[in-house]
Design brief:
Length: 148
């Protein structure tokens, strides 16, 4: 499991990009994963880490609450990503989409994962934290999985 204190010791004050699944685990209170993800979000709220994610995360998180017509869940997602300010919500521009296409072509990533990685790199994040293990090893960013 992700060692949040170790992450803080290594990357305190740095930009850390969070994949959508980090937020899903917290919002759904997913057993095993919610606790380390909540600790990660708390470190961002405490400004120990500079938390980042992309607009695509907002879109992914809103799907189920909108399908269920759950206004409270929609508000919780918006509060988490837009209102509270602990996580910077980044736009995906044309350059980011082109880089995502290159990453997808070279490494066989799903488009959304390539977009997350391209956005993280463009923003200067030191690492991308996910629960997906298919991210490539790159020299300019470390891709960490919750489960190691």
């Amino acid at each position: 499991m992700l060692d949040v204190p170790g992450l803080l010791a290594r990357w305190r004050g740095c930009k850390v990009y969070l994949d959508t699944n980090i937020f899903i685990y917290v919002l759904n209170n997913t057993p095993v994963y919610a606790e380390p993800c909540l600790a990660l979000l708390q470190a961002c709220a405490d400004r120990q880490l500079m938390g980042l994610t992309g607009d695509v995360t907002l879109a992914e998180l809103l799907v189920k609450p909108l399908q269920a017509n759950d206004a409270a869940a929609v508000a919780a997602v918006r509060d988490l990503l837009m209102e509270d300010g602990a996580i910077a919500l980044l736009n995906h521009d044309r350059t980011t989409f082109e880089e995502a296409a290159r990453l997808r072509a070279k490494h066989g990533l799903k488009m959304v994962d390539a977009l997350h990685l391209a956005t993280a790199r463009q923003a200067g994040a030191v690492c991308l934290i996910s629960n997906d293990r298919q991210f490539p090893v790159l020299s300019d960013i470390e891709c960490l999985s919750l489960v190691g």
